[in-house]
Amino acid sequence: MKRIIIASSAGFCFGVKRAISIANETAGKAADEERGAGRLPINSLGPLIHNPQAVEELEKKGVHVVESVDEIACGKVIVRSHGITRSDGEALAAKGVKIIDATCPFVKKAQEHARSLSREGYAVIVVGDANHPEVKSIISYIEAGTPTITSLADLRESSGIRKAGIVAQTTQSFENMMEFVSVALKIIPEVRVYNTICHATVLRQKESVAVARKADAMIVLGGYNSANTRRLAEICSEFNPRTSHIETAAELSPEMLSGVSCAGVTAGASTPEWIIEELVGRIRTIWKEEKIQVSYYQ
Ligand code: SF4
């Protein structure tokens, strides 16, 4: 009998579920207002989650994606789980735009640590992708004039720093953060570390690796613009060379399953449940078998 093993933690994490439910609630209230006094625009600054299909669903409900604060004149803006920079928040408030804050509480924690470290005179090392909106939002909370480092190269070249604090982008790997810690300890006398890596990410990575090891082929589902999905695909391919990263079920080709009797499935934090269900349906169609065992790995 053929088997499909799905990582239990595949799909929406707590922060994304929360952001989607805040967006749905805001859109629902706006629909009520429309029946009454008239509707103000609802925007999200950047896509609410890194999944084009889920963003499309929200668009149908009236949540429009804009790329910059300049495009928002009035109405409401939903802040996504990555958070926004302090200056964007201030610019929106100055325009009288109502801010609906769906920043994930774990990202908020990283922002708060960055701010308090800088206020206490620590240089701040942010482990993460400097171009990622979450890292930009964390950095924006660091007080002006504080030495701020985001790369190992810059950390190695730094000099004269007496004390530094380390925070991480929530989706970073523990190993990467530890590399920063180990370099910092060699050159900076006092180092304070806040482990701001999100447990949901660690758990998803661990489960996905376990599934990838068991499966003949591994399918990683999620937006191509989703950093955590790309990272999942990377990690899984280390353990299973037949790992494919696809965005929708329609992209699953019969070749990806050729000779496979156990297919592993995982999905990034911003992949909706219905896309995972569609993938299982597509595997069933390709396999054309009556009996396929589907199980969840924990
Ligand atoms: S991955 Fe973690 S930190 Fe990021 S949104 Fe989800 S729960 Fe929050």
CATH topology of the largest domain: Cobalt-precorrin-4 Transmethylase, domain 1
**CATH C-level name of the largest domain:** Alpha Beta
Overall geometry comes to: flat
Strand order of the largest sheet: 11-10-12-1-13
Describe, in plain words, how this protein is organized in 3D.
By secondary structure, the chain is an alpha/beta fold. The radius of gyration is 21 Å and the shape is flat. 43% of the residues lie in helices and 20% in strands. The model has no long low-confidence stretch (mean pLDDT 93). The protein has helices spanning 14-35, 52-60, 86-95, 105-119, 133-140, 152-157, 174-187, 199-214, 227-239, 273-287; strands at residues 2-7, 42-45, 63-66, 76-79, 98-101, 123-127, 148-149, 163-168, 190-193, 217-221, 243-246, 262-267, 292-297. It has three domains: 2-12 and 199-297, 3-Layer(aba) Sandwich (Cobalt-precorrin-4 Transmethylase, domain 1), CATH 3.40.1010; 14-104, Rossmann fold (3-Layer(aba) Sandwich); 106-193, 4-hydroxy-3-methylbut-2-enyl diphosphate reductase, catalytic domain (Cobalt-precorrin-4 Transmethylase, domain 1, 3-Layer(aba) Sandwich). The chain has a five-stranded parallel sheet with strand order 11-10-12-1-13, sandwiched between helices. The relative contact order is 0.17. Helix 4 (105-119) runs parallel beside helix 5 (133-140) and helix 8 packs parallel to helix 9. The protein has ten helices and 13 strands. It binds iron/sulfur cluster. Residues 13-16, 81, 104, 106-107, 170-171, 198, 200-201, 269 line the site of iron/sulfur cluster.
